[in-house]
Every structure is written in structure tokens, then in C-alpha cells.
Amino acid sequence: MSAVLSPATDPAAGAAPMTDGFHLVIDALKLNDITTIYGLPGIPITDLTRMAQAEGLRMISFRHEQNAGHAAAIAGFLNARPGVCLTVSAPGFLNALTALANATTNCFPMILISGSSEREVVDLQQGDYEEMDQLAIAKPLAKAAYRVLHAEDIGIGIARAIRAAVSGRPGGVYLDLPAKLFAQTMDAAAGAASLIKVVDPAPRQIPAPEAVQRALELLRGAKKPLIVLGKGAAYARADDEVRALVERTGIPYLPMSMAKGLLPDTHELSAAAARSYALPEADVVLLVGARLNWLLSHGKGKTWGGKHAKAWGGQKFIQIDISPTEMDSNVRIDAPVVGDIGSCVTALLAGIGSGWPRPPAAWLDALSERKNKNIAKLSETLAKDARPMNFHGALNVVRDIVKANPDAMLVNEGANALDFTRSIVDMYKPRKRVDVGTWGVMGIGMGFAVAAAIETGQPVIAIEGDSAFGFSGMEVETICRYQLPVCVVIFNNNGVYRGTDKNLGGGADMAPTAFVKDARYERLMEAFGGVGVYAATPDELRRGMEEALRSRRPTLVNAIIDETAGTESGRITSLNPTRQKTT
Ligand code: OXK
Ligand code: ADP
Prior knowledge:
6-stranded parallel beta sheet; alpha/beta; globular; binds oxalyl-coenzyme A; 583 residues
């Protein structure tokens, strides 16, 4: 990557070459190996997008900033480098905030750069074009937020944004660039000197030896140990170390959804198919890059081993995390190991050596029994081939196709479409599955699909609930425009959760959860030159998906699912408040 500053102006005879804010931003990004910007042009950043493209940055233009933001965030997760999103001022900035906040919540490194209106006018609230104090609004949603007012500070601003995004616990960073900044000029040599190539942006964080010893002692005494792998473990790229930890100790593990594939889901030590047995029964749980948040029932209650409190004092937790304040956030952490996962797992492995005792056979056998029972039950259901097609019939096909294409990326959102896919479709390689994450956010679909295709070069399969798809569906044009190898599969059951709900008031309006029946989603893709497939049977779905993967052409398969199939909020029905009983 060239670090040479782009000349912005023709130097007059004898005058020193000059540069400007536009070029300093571009050069600072390039200097830090940022190759792609996800965004949407408009005032005041239209010329920045043009110049960025002219200077060799890939500029991926979206139809809505939220999708560009999600794309940048997942690019950050996939590369462990900040993904960059670029938007216009106020409304465009606001549109991207969901993605910025989601990135922060999920620990994805992302930088949102937004143009903004003039400080002097904004601060006096004199009604500027798209007037908004963007920095103040972004602050609570971002890990860090900065504003640059002078061209000579652009290098510092971008360096700070990069460091904040990727060091320690990664997150979303906001960088506010007022319109006037872009046109500021300065001496090109001084500009070049002002840029910073960030050295070691995400420094390793080595755990304290005594913390490692404490963890090893607890693990050694366990009768029913369990490892929980979270998306932090996938992000950390310590794939070999994590695998060695599982295999050298022989401890069964549970992958959280974006950690699926870190070890192949078919691994004999995977306890995924015995989840509801493993969590409450385990006596020592080692969390690796997974938070004890709602997805893990906060580490307490009936999902966990509270019932064993009397017999053996309840469960003990070892937690590996880069963020010290994550410890004790929900329950007591008996052995906190603070550091980056690569360093922490390496340190544990050094203490584990080669003669580590296998967990007691009684524990492994009990897990295997539950697991095998669940797997057999699922196989039976998958083999049923119900008509009309249901989630299982469709996912039986997707499961085969992912198995045959283990390098393909899988994007997944919805309620039932999400939950059934997570438990039915096995993953075989790390960081291949990206989904709604910590918030259960809908709308990540097409943004994630675009970035997954661009960043990995692999084909992308996006399994989408019909409701979830609606949040970002217009980006099928983006997928066609860049000719991306994305196969969108919409599980179309005519509504949110299902298509059969009725208007409880008996009026002409449809129920709030119901959609137009028999919508022809595949025609959306055809409208922009892609391939549309209508699939009412598993065979049609299989043919459509196989052809999409073979041709790498943008494809949308409208998979028609029984409209009575699907439960409220999928597997998290219990989170829906119901009316309190009054006495
Ligand atoms: C898992 N299972 C299997 C297998 N893998 N059976 C057979 N074979 C295989 N390979 C079993 C597993 O043992 C569980 O059964 C069941 O399948 C489900 O597994 P899993 O891992 O998915 O577990 P569960 O209980 O659903 O996990 C809880 C959870 C998860 C909270 C982590 O539900 C989750 O990630 N939810 C995210 C939901 C979300 O974000 N929704 C979007 C919002 S919807 P048992 O018998 O062991 O239990 C929305 O917007 O509003 O409604 C809205
Ligand atoms: P999941 O939803 O899969 O359970 P979470 O998002 O809850 O995962 O947890 C991820 C955790 O991983 C966060 O607490 C974060 O601080 C941590 N983390 C992220 N990257 C690293 C890393 N390189 N080393 C250690 N911990 C990390």
C-alpha cells in the first residue's frame, strides 16, 4: 500500500504541492490498510466517495445507510480490522446508528465516518442544512467518538478511531468530519507527515500467571466440566489453540451461534445437541469469549445448575475475556482470566500439558446419550418431507448444501428462520456463520451478505425470514450491481412468525403480523438482472440453491413455507410479556 500523499491541487509554478482534507482522509485510511468503504454518497461526502474510488479504495454504495453500517461492522468481525462506513450528515448519520450501536453491543470493530454541518451554525442552532450535533448523539452508542476540525488532525483522528475500534474489547467508533474540513488545504509534505500508521492496533493482553493457575486448579477438580465458546473466540482467531484446548482436555463444548464451526459442529465433543442438559448439569463452566447475558440466561435460574447449590455448592465459572469488567456482571466468576483469547488459551495449554485427565466417563456418557437421542429425533423430523414444505423440509436441503460447500458464508436472520437454522444447519469452519447476534437485531441480512461476499470472496447463503428480509430487501439491487455471489433464500410463510394470524378486532385490516399472501419475492431479484427462483418443494429449493452456488450469480429463492408453521418469536417465546393475572 502506497503511503504517498495524493496531490489535491496542481501546484502553481514554484509553489509547494498542496493537499486537502478529502485526500488526507483517503490517505490515512489507505496507510492503515483499509481497502473498502461501505457507504452512501450525498452532501457533504459525495466527492469523498468519488475521490476514494479514484485513489483505489473500493467504494461499495448502498441504498440505505443502515445496511452499509451492518456491512462495515461484519467486515470488522471477519477481518479483525475496523470496517468503515461513510454517510452523509444528520438523516444518513441517524440511519447508520443502529448498525453502530449493534457493532458496539456485539464487539465488532467498526468506524462510522459521517459528514456533518458547520459547527458554528450547529452550535448556535441557527438552522443549518441537516443541522445536528452528531457527536453528542453518537457518544452513548459508540465505544468512542471523535470530531476532527483541522486538516492537520485527520491522521490523528483516524489513528484514534482505529485504536479505539480494535484494541481491548472491540466496538463501534464514530468519527465526525464537518463539511468544511474536506476543502481545507495544507502543504502536501506536512500533510504526509501528519498521517499515522497505527503500530500494533490490538496489542496482545497476556493474562496474569496466578489467574491462569486458579483457572487450571478449578478445571482440574471438575467432575462435569463444560466449555462455552462465544463469538469472541471466533473473533480472536485462536482457532488452533481453542481446538487444542478442547481436544487435549477432552472437555465437551457448547458453541454460541457465531462460534459454530470454530470446531466442526460434527465434532464428537460438541454438546450442542444436549444443550439443555449440559448447562444445568455442568459443575465447572469455562467461558471463552462468551458473555453471561440473556443468551446464556444470565448464568442463573433453571437453565443453570442452581438446583445443585446444596449438593455441591452450585456451579463454578472460569471466564476468559479481554474486558475485566465483564467479570461478575451476572454471577460470581470464580476464576477470571483477563486477556486476549489467544494468549489466555495458550497459557492454559502450557499448564495442561499432555497428561491432562479426561473428564469422568459418567459425564461424557450422559451427554452422549442425550445428544444421540436429540440427533436421532432431529433426523427423523428432517426426513419427513412434509407438504406444504415446512422449516425442517427446507433446512434439510440447506444443511446438505452447507455441508457440500463448507467455505460458503451463511448469513441468518428471522425468528423461526433463525432458530431452526442455528440448530439444524451444521457449520464446519470458523467465522462462516454471521447472524443477529447479541441484540437479536433484524435487518442485518443484506448488509452482512454484501460484506461477507466482498471480504471473503466466497459464495454467500442468506437464510432469511420473510419479515427479516424486508428490513434490507432493497439491497438486492446492490447485490446485482456488484454481481456478488449471494444466494438469498426467503422462508416465506406469509408473515412475522407465521401467516395465519387474524385481526382480533374483526376489521378489514390484516393482523399486525400478517403479510400479503403468496408474495413473489423472487421477482425483486429479477428486476435488477439477478436470478429469481420460486421453490415450493425441497427439490426445487435444492436445484435453485445448487445452481446459485455453481453460477455465482445473484439469486433469490422464494422458499414457500407452510403458513401455519412457526411459533411466536421462535425459541424465545417466553420473552414476550403476557398480560398479568389480576386477583
Ligand atoms: C442443537 N440441538 C440439536 C442440534 N443442535 N439437536 C439435534 N442436532 C443438533 N445438531 C438442539 C438443542 O439441544 C436444543 O434442544 C435445541 O436444538 C435448540 O438448540 P440451540 O442451541 O439453538 O438452543 P436454544 O435453547 O434455542 O438456545 C437459546 C438461545 C437461542 C437464547 C441461545 O435461542 C438464541 O440464540 N436465540 C436468539 C434468538 C434471537 O435473537 N431471535 C431474534 C429475535 S426474534 P434442547 O432439548 O437441548 O433444548 C424477534 O425479533 O421479536 O420475536 C421477535
Ligand atoms: P456470544 O454472543 O457468542 O456469547 P458475546 O458477544 O456475548 O459472544 O461475547 C464475546 C466476548 O468476547 C465479549 O465479552 C468480548 O469482550 C470478548 N472478546 C472479544 N474479542 C476478544 C479477544 N480477542 N480476546 C478475549 N476476549 C474477546
